[in-house]
């Protein structure tokens, strides 16, 4: 993985020294909050409901064991012993003191990490497929592109004070695991008929108040054109995007208002202007970066231990069947560690759990870890013979839950338990849903079903693209939850349909249970997933199950 | 017609800790809503808010929050203020943790 060079280290040290001085001036009263706020946001520091919150970038979700151990140290030394992994492959610390944050940033810099551009109207932390470099369906590891974009966008002078934030995701697999179509801009590695690798570029995706699915602006961009093209897109939007209304400022609205033909023409014109200024330094840099992401030297060994354990240990077998994905090496596997134990906060890991995962990565996983937007941790490269030992260790630390892709593998934003913007809680809803379906012992029978919960309209919990989406709102001073059905976060992306009136806090769990039980009744075979059933039968039967009283009135 | 004024407290976050604090009648800041000054007069509320907002070296984001008089002092009327005076519901952290240690 990428290692900071002297330039990176010096840049970060200087930036952290600047922020330390800014914090000092805020504390001694030389800076007002209005002056300080944009500065702290540029460095990932929010003020939330109960405390400050520091959002640390995990670029394209990749970590090594030293970095994970350092996150554990931050959690223990300056927070309450845990961290929260987010839907944007970041980690958030919920309880830092303002005066401690400069020390936290210095500690992060020791392992090549930072909180720069995790907030503010800039290009945010670049996200990527969490199986990058490991997935069997991959054309090319998307992380060198993501790292190139990270370096280009970090402190880019033209893009520090835009009309709104700008989120970029990169994918390189046949399957989309990075929710590409819900980003302001997505880069998808593709191969043309001549066998050349290039990029398909999508723009205008986004969730929030006005959910939109991203559209293709360029079907095949030659490799060398990537940065000038991205610069052209962001530049065009930065000029014509609306600044009169922050809810209409994202590129999805600009695209909607101007139309793709107009935007494409503007981008092409801007690209023609910019392209000559890129004289190959970006391509040299890209080659250097690529070398850092060379695949590890995969070991070969017998997988007999794995086969025996799979046959004899039903708990291990269940975990293997649920939490493993196909690796590009036959004798390796991709392990998704669930940090969604039933009844626990989705995405939270204790310092101890972080250290356990770091140790496993160092011992068995070629020192690599990933964070998924689904708020789980991944060991991307594991030889199958090591799986029984890994599983045993995970179980000891509350990390052995076999629920990846199942109903209790819920995405949930922090909601009103932490977030100052939230209109309702989401964490307790996720906890109760997971507990309930665990009690019913139905989740393996239900199969692949994604529930995504947001505690406000900004949709950090991706509720629009959940198979079952839940949106928490404040209705006349009471928490109220709206349900959407049929959303899809993959390449066949779709925004869910609203099912009808919302439910009170104490009604939402039974409401979801009614949807699931309707699905179990309606599905054509046990193999037909919830989403397939929904697409076959539509909203009506689920609506009938959700609102039995209304049905009675009609009858 | 303007809406009738409802009782308020002045609340903010502490500059260093970032935790929730309330302005008391004696011009100090308390971490306990029950000790806050319950303001029933609109003109007085605006003056007190100006006082609070001028203390930039101590507090951040002072605002008027609805409250009602309870047995032990002011109580919240909205669930957001209930969470602010208590802490998150997934862990016993925040104010509820401090109270448990008393």
TrEMBL record, chain A:
SUPFAM superfamilies: Nitrite and sulphite reductase 4Fe-4S domain-like, Nitrite/Sulfite reductase N-terminal domain-like. Keywords: 4Fe-4S, Heme, Iron, Iron-sulfur, Metal-binding, Oxidoreductase. The keyword Membrane does not apply. It holds the Pfam family NIR_SIR_ferr. Residues 119-271, 410-549 form the Nitrite/sulphite reductase 4Fe-4S domain. The keyword Metal-binding applies. Residues 52-111, 346-396 form the Nitrite/Sulfite reductase ferredoxin-like domain. InterPro entries: NIR_SIR_4Fe-4S, NiRdtase/SiRdtase_haem-b_fer, Nit/Sulf_reduc_fer-like_dom_sf, NO2/SO3_Rdtase_4Fe4S_dom, NO2/SO3_Rdtase_4Fe4S_sf. PANTHER family: BLR3264 PROTEIN, FERREDOXIN--NITRITE REDUCTASE, CHLOROPLASTIC. This is Sulfite reductase. It comes from Parasedimentitalea denitrificans.
From TrEMBL, chain B:
It comes from the Bacteria. Residues 71-102 are annotated as: Disordered. Pfam families: DUF2849. This is DUF2849 domain-containing protein.
């Amino acid at each position: 993985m990428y290692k900071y060079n002297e330039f990176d280290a010096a840049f970060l040290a200087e930036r952290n020294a600047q922020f330390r001085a800014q914090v000092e001036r805020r504390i001694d009263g030389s800076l007002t909050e209005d002056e300080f706020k944009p500065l702290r946001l540029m460095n990932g520091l929010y003020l939330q409901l109960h405390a400050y919150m520091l959002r640390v970038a995990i670029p394209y979700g990749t970590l090594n064991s030293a970095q994970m151990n350092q996150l554990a140290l931050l959690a223990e030394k300056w927070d309450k012993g845990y961290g929260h992994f987010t839907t944007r492959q970041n980690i958030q610390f919920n309880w830092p003191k303002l005066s401690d944050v400069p020390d936290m940033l210095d500690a992060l810099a020791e392992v090549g990490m930072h909180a720069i551009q995790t907030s503010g109207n800039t290009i945010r932390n670049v996200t990527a497929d969490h199986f990058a470099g490991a997935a069997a369906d991959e054309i090319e590891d998307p992380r060198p592109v993501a790292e190139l974009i990270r370096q280009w966008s970090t402190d880019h002078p033209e893009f520090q004070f835009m009309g709104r934030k700008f989120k970029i995701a990169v994918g390189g697999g046949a399957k989309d695991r990075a929710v590409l179509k819900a980003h302001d801009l997505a880069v998808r590695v593709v191969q043309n008929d001549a066998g050349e690798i290039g990029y398909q570029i999508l723009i205008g995706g986004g969730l929030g108040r006005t959910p939109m699915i991203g559209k293709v602006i360029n079907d095949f961009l030659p490799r060398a054109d990537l940065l000038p093209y991205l610069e052209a897109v962001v530049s065009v939007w930065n000029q014509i995007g609306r600044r009169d209304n922050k809810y209409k400022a994202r590129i999805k609205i600009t695209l909607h208002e101007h139309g793709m033909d107009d935007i494409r023409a503007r981008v092409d014109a801007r690209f023609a202007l910019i392209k000559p200024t890129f004289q190959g330094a970006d391509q040299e840099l890209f080659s250097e970066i690529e070398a850092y992401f060379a695949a590890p030297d995969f070991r070969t060994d017998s997988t007999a231990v794995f086969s025996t354990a799979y046959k004899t240990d039903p708990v291990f077998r269940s975990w293997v069947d649920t939490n493993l994905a196909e690796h590009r090496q036959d004798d390796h596997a991709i392990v998704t560690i669930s940090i969604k134990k039933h009844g626990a906060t989705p995405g939270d890991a204790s310092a101890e759990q972080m250290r356990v995962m770091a140790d496993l990565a160092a011992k068995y996983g070629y020192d690599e870890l990933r964070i998924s937007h689904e708020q789980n941790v991944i060991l991307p490269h594991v030889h199958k013979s090591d799986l029984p030992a890994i599983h045993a260790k995970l179980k000891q630390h509350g990390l052995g839950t076999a629920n990846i892709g199942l109903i209790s593998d819920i995405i949930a934003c922090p909601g009103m338990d932490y977030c100052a913007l939230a209109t309702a809680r989401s964490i307790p809803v996720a906890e109760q849903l997971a507990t309930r379906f665990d009690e019913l012992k139905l989740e393996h029978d239900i199969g692949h079903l994604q529930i995504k919960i947001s505690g406000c309209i900004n949709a950090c919990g991706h509720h629009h693209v959940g198979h079952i989406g839940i949106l928490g709102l404040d209705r006349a001073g009471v928490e109220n939850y709206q349900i959407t059905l049929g959303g899809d976060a993959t390449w066949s992306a779709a925004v869910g349909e609203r099912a009808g009136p919302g439910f009170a806090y104490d009604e939402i769990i039974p409401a979801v249970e009614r949807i699931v039980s309707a699905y179990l009744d309606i599905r054509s075979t046990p193999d037909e997933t919830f989403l397939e059933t929904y697409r076959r039968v539509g909203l009506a039967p689920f609506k009938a199950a959700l609102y039995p009283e209304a049905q009675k009135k009609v009858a | 017609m303007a809406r009738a004024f409802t009782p308020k407290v002045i609340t903010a976050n502490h500059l260093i800790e970032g935790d929730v604090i309330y302005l008391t009648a004696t011009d100090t800041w308390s971490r306990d809503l029950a000790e806050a000054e319950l303001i029933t007069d609109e003109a007085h509320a605006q003056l007190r808010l100006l006082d609070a907002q001028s203390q930039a070296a101590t507090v951040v984001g002072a605002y008027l929050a609805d409250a009602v008089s309870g047995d032990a002092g002011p109580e919240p009327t909205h669930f957001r203020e209930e969470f602010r005076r208590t802490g998150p519901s997934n862990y016993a952290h925040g104010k509820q943790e401090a109270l448990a240690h008393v």
